[in-house]
Amino acid sequence: MAQFVSYLAEKALALVNTAVTYSKPRLATFWHYTKVELVPPIPAEIPTDIQSLKKIVIALKLAASNSSVKEALLNGLVATEVWMVLCW
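and the corresponding structure tokens:
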């Protein structure tokens, strides 16, 4: 029984070392992109973001006015599904 516990501890340690070795470069890349991409917007970017949102809303209104009832219903169902996945 003692040999089994010793063997299990040895294998667990080897597995942890392998996982750490595998994860280090990937985590370094992850943290690099996290620091670059997830910074809050600077005040100078806010007006351009608002203009982009206005353009998106106008495009959505135009697409909604040019779609059939069937397409609008399907788009509504897809939007509801996405909303439920994100909220739950």
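(Above: one complete record from the training split.) Helices lie at 2-37, 46-65, 69-87.
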